[in-house]
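haha ok so turns out i had the wrong file open the whole time. this is the CORRECT one, sorry everyone. sequence first:
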Amino acid sequence: MSSFGAIGARLYAWFNRHPESNRAVVDLAELRAGEPVLEVGCGPGVALELAARIAGAEQVAAVEPSETFVAMARKRVPGADVRVAGAEDVPFADGSFAVIYTLASMHHWDDRDAGLATLCAKLRPGGRLVLAERLLDKPGHGITRAQIGDVTARLTALGQTGLRTEQRRVGRKTLVAVISERPLAA
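then structure:
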């Protein structure tokens, strides 16, 4: 999304302002009031707004590489900590979040393995990671079953536990989420 200009970002935001996929990923994240939450690749902030209604605006944070989207998300969710960054360089302390989720952004990451490692480190013990993408038959703007296997293997290697996938039908598309947890401290 970082290659979007301001006009492209605003058009994207207009046509994607209330998609059911945002509600689905927030539901899958099982947010609770008062939990610190991070959205990676927040776009214009639609899911961030939904998360803020549950966790509280002061408990939600987001990173997004597009400055235009960051400005839109900050306006949409006053009180949220929204910063210009990508999944590979999340500017928050390790162990900061009870939940981290992303929707339709992982396929944009420059280095998926580095992004996954960074997000796992930012979770506190017992924290949940929800990686949601559109299910595809071949590589593109989403994730294939083979790529799900690669992501699951990487999360396992990073020490994540409780790995599972969930699918939701959203309009004519299938949303798939890879969900895992950071183990509790020994």
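Confidence is low (pLDDT under 50) at residues 9-18.
again sry for the mixup
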